[in-house]
Design brief:
alpha/beta, Rossmann fold, 2 domains, 8-stranded mixed β-sheet, 6-stranded parallel β-sheet
């Protein structure tokens, strides 16, 4: 069994994102063990080692590893470029750079470490077209591996009671799930909410580093972070799901996990015109506020069962299980070299 070591990067229990999903499905192949070092920045871990899935171990930073007892040298997986400092310390057989975001704006601090990481990585996985195009000219083994859908989880959670903190009444709900952060277009959100008082705009997710400059209005609701177990219940209440990212170099490189969660639930998706979403089916891309409102209006009034079925089929074809197979095939080739 191959062992992947993921050095401290994110709080495992805060937001359930690409690392947790991809590693979960790699473990489910029966060929990988994952040791995920948890930062515990937001949520303390109850035990030093927690096996969250068979062969998927979430560890506090104090837990050591006896590399000599592993069946073979581990694979070091880095998605946070400053973790280049771990290269060579674990006697790893492979270094994987999982390029998940552009090193600009909020992630500008990563830029210093990326040239050396690209040079020392054996394989680079890129989550978006922009990142793939950037790194393929700099490294011989770059593979596109977008985010994916935890399809069964989000497609099968639609028959639960409406959460008590959702807005009351029968007004259409325009919903967002994810970090409440600077990369959202708050001017667009405010303009759309002011113009469309007949809709409720609901945001599910934590405030990223206590980001303060959000839009406010009588029909805008911030319901805070929800556990991964609760998330499908909220998305099921949304009539239209939105990805209102502010267009920038950073957001053009984003392949949003939330897109696949929305589509797994069968929901229509309206977004701003970020580069990654321009060619993805079942996303109504909007160049300005007028188009954003027009697209939402269309889906509030015209969604039907056939559209729901098609969205779910797309999400199922782009599952995390498929992404894990894509990664596993590459790693197998590298390990056999």
């Amino acid at each position: 069994m191959h062992t992947i070591i993921y050095p401290p990067t994110i709080d495992y229990y805060w937001l359930y994102q690409r690392p947790q999903q991809l590693f979960k499905y790699l473990c489910r192949t029966g060929r990988y063990r994952v040791i995920f070092y948890n930062t515990e920045v937001c949520i303390p871990q109850r035990e030093p080692i927690q096996e969250v899935e068979p062969n998927f171990y979430v560890c506090t930073k104090k837990v050591g590893i006896n590399i000599g007892k592993l069946e073979e040298q581990p694979i070091l997986w880095i998605s946070y470029p400053p973790n280049i400092k771990y290269i060579g310390k674990l006697r790893e057989q492979l270094v994987i750079f999982d390029a998940i975001d552009d090193a600009s704006e909020d992630f500008g601090g990563w830029a210093h470490d990326i040239p050396a990481l690209v040079q020392r990585a054996d394989v680079i996985f890129a989550t978006s077209k922009k990142l793939y195009n950037e790194y393929k000219t700099r490294h011989p083994r770059v593979y596109l591996c977008p985010n994916g859908a935890d399809y069964d989880y989000f497609a099968s959670n639609g028959k639960n009671p409406r959460p008590g903190d959702m807005p009351k009444g029968e007004r259409p709900v325009i919903g967002y799930s994810g970090a409440v952060a600077s990369w959202l277009d708050w001017q667009l959100v405010k303009s759309a909410a002011d113009r469309c008082k007949q809709w409720d705009f609901v945001f599910i997710g934590p405030f990223y580093f206590n980001f303060p400059d959000v839009a406010h209005g009588s029909n805008i609701y911030y319901l805070g972070r929800k556990s991964y177990e609760e998330l499908p219940y909220y998305i099921n209440c949304f009539d239209v799901c939105m990805i209102p990212f502010r267009k920038s170099g950073m957001t053009d490189a984003v392949n949003p996990v939330k897109l696949y969660e929305y589509l797994s639930a069968g929901k229509p998706v309206v977004s701003t015109d970020i580069y990654e979403l321009e060619d993805i089916p079942f996303v109504s891309v909007s160049k300005d506020t007028d188009e954003f409102v027009k697209n939402i209006t269309y889906w509030v009034e015209n969604d039907d069962d056939e559209y729901i079925k098609q969205r779910r089929e797309f999400a199922k074809a782009n599952s995390w299980a498929e992404r894990a197979k894509r990664v596993s095939d590459v790693l197998d080739t590298m390990i056999r070299r």
